[in-house]
Write a structure and sequence with these properties.
Layout: E1 2-6, H1 13-23, E2 27-31, H2 35-41, E3 47-50, H3 57-64, E4 70-73, H4 82-92, E5 97-101, H5 108-123, E6 127-132, E7 135-140, E8 144-147, E9 155-160, E10 165-171, E11 177-182, E12 192-193, E13 198-202, E14 208-213
Parallel strand pairs: 1-2, 1-5, 2-3, 3-4, 5-6
Antiparallel strand pairs: 6-7, 7-14, 8-13, 9-12, 9-14, 10-11, 10-13
């Protein structure tokens, strides 16, 4: 099952429409203020969750009237963000691939937190992506191939998320590496570019954030 989560950050509606149609999702989850996109688009989410502290009350009540939507209300005093709860719900539903829109925006604390949440899916062996009009982010702990014809933007940046990453080999990039170490607090992996038909990232140990970006 392929799941789309719309959460409460910045959501560009036209981008989200195009992304949703291209990816053809099986399951739709709205997280808190993420219901606003569904209200605007006239699209019905399969499930809605959150503490609803930032959701529009009128939109929320409108969705509550639809008995076909599963609601998961939470108290604001909880130990996980609404985005984390949505991701865990998607995994509990048996999703084999998860995409998150609305996880970026002006709140950098939420952005950093959401990037780390991708590790939940990584540990579960599930592909998970965060995306907005300028960025697509995922985590990698093994060999990853990016086809130039399918890349998300001009640049590919690689940053360790759990300390030193060892045995990093890059092929098909402008800047190559062979069995290198990539350490935290270093910008070695920022702003690389794909120059071959395929770019290959190989990792022996550790986790890299793989960020495909465009201006």
């Amino acid at each position: 099952m392929k799941t789309l989560i719309i959460t409460g950050g910045t959501v560009d509606a036209s981008f989200a429409d195009a992304y949703r149609k291209k990816e053809a999702f099986d399951h739709l989850i709205a997280s808190d203020a993420g219901i606003h996109y569904f209200a605007l688009s006239g699209l019905k989410p399969d499930e809605i969750l959150g503490d609803f502290d930032s959701a529009d009350k009128e939109e929320l009540e409108r969705f509550r009237e639809d008995k076909g939507i599963i609601f998961h209300p939470y108290q604001p005093e909880k130990d996980a963000s609404d985005t984390e709860l949505a991701l865990r719900l998607a995994l509990a539903r048996g999703s084999g691939e998860v995409h998150i829109l609305g996880a970026t925006g002006t709140r950098l604390d939420h952005v950093f937190g959401a990037v780390h949440l991708l590790g939940i899916a990584l540990k579960a062996g599930v592909s998970c992506y965060m995306a907005d009009p300028h960025n697509r982010i995922r985590l990698a702990d093994k060999r990853l191939v990016i086809k130039r014809a399918e890349q998300y933007g001009k640049y590919v940046s690689l940053l360790p998320v759990d300390g030193t990453v060892t045995g990093v080999t890059l092929k098909g990039f402008r800047y190559l590496l062979a069995h290198a170490e990539m350490k935290s607090f270093c910008t070695l992996g920022v702003s690389n570019e794909i120059v071959a038909d395929e770019a290959v990232i190989e990792i022996e140990k550790g986790v890299l954030a793989v960020m495909e970006t465009r201006d």
